[in-house]
Amino acid sequence: MSDSAIEVAGLRKAYGTKVVLDGIDLHVPAGTIFSLLGPNGAGKTTTVNILTTLIQADGGSARVAGQDLIRNAKGVRARIGVTGQFAAVDDLLTGQENLQLMVDLKRADSAVIPGLLERFDLTAAAQKPVATYSGGMRRKLDLAMTLVGDPQIIFLDEPTTGLDPRSRRTMWDIIRDLVAGGVTIFLTTQYLEEADQLADRIAVLDQGRLVAQGTPAELKRQIPGSHVRLRFGDAASASSAADLLGATRDEDGVTLRVPGDGGTAALRDLLNRLDDHGAHAEELSVHTPDLDDVFLALTGRPHHAEEASNR
Ligand SMILES: Nc1ncnc2c1ncn2[C@@H]1O[C@H](COP(=O)(O)OP(=O)(O)OP(=O)(O)O)[C@@H](O)[C@H]1O
């Protein structure tokens, strides 16, 4: 496979007069985690549905796992896995039976089942009906089912919505393990912290357009609020450095906040200026806004994950 797991150009979709995707370009390198964020109704699910061949775009082109989405939808389907909030898991069947169903569907070998149960810590519960499983166990089983057939790309639609913090962390570890094994993850999530923790790159979708793309750090640097904090040994040093840099001092009198993007060029410049004036900070830290700030700045709307998940 080439370096690119997903390559999308000018993707468009409208329902009647409502334009849902207004020319989307995406590039997802193989073996990375890509996260698509956006407020409710932004077009995330529509994007995933198009890329997983569930619905057709009106315009634009896409290659998924090296296959053309339109000309070889079957080839795409053979190479991807989709794990959704509304999982394909059947409550009345046991974990083992659910996996067997997937093996039959994908004409895979049943021999993979014990390994998958083991990997997701579900061996002990394998003979119990899924109705008795916790939320975390169901998500794990859902993901295990997705792995049958060894997909190259996994679409994870809100994989941890509704999970307690511990199960969420377990799921994050599992996702990181998958990527370490070479799989590419396309993640949609309502939790900005999740994208921040997991994603190599994030794209923010708003009203059918991409309003930003980059690493979590790049996105955070784009918006105001980033600053470098410097702590000096005494108030006099802090005061003269404050004059030099035009920075404000914190209440403690020894810490300065210097507005800036925290990028390496700006940091080098800052340190050089301090050096030139014989000023020596005891501690330096870079503070960036979190993704919530980014989301607000880019979409003009605050992001309330809890509210959204209770819809
Ligand atoms: N089959 C459809 N017919 C008409 N409009 C649709 C259809 N499917 C989606 N839409 C509209 O397209 C827009 C984008 O929907 P989509 O589900 O892709 O958003 P989303 O970003 O996934 O939002 P959410 O976080 O709420 O799931 C919404 O305004 C939605 O109402």
UniProtKB/TrEMBL annotation:
| InterPro entries per record | AAA+_ATPase (IPR003593), ABC_transporter-like_ATP-bd (IPR003439), ABC_transporter-like_CS (IPR017871), ABC_transporter_ATP-binding (IPR050763), DrrA (IPR005894), DrrA1/2-like_C (IPR025302), P-loop_NTPase (IPR027417)
Which stretch is the leader sequence? Answer: none
The places in or outside the cell where this protein is found are: Cell membrane
One Pfam family this chain carries?
DrrA1-3_C
- Keyword NAD in record: no
**Membrane topology of this protein:** Peripheral membrane protein
What's one GO MF term for it? ATP binding
Q: Which UniProt keywords apply?
A: Antibiotic resistance, ATP-binding, Cell membrane, Membrane, Nucleotide-binding, Translocase, Transport
> Is Transport set as a keyword in this record?
yes
Q: What are the residue boundaries of the ABC transporter domain, all occurrences included?
A: 6-232
Describe the family membership recorded for this protein in Swiss-Prot or TrEMBL.
Belongs to the ABC transporter superfamily. Drug exporter-1 (DrugE1) (TC 3.A.1.105) family.
Q: Which NCBIfam families match?
A: drrA
Q: What is this protein called?
A: ATP-binding cassette domain-containing protein
What is the organism of origin for this protein? Actinoplanes sichuanensis
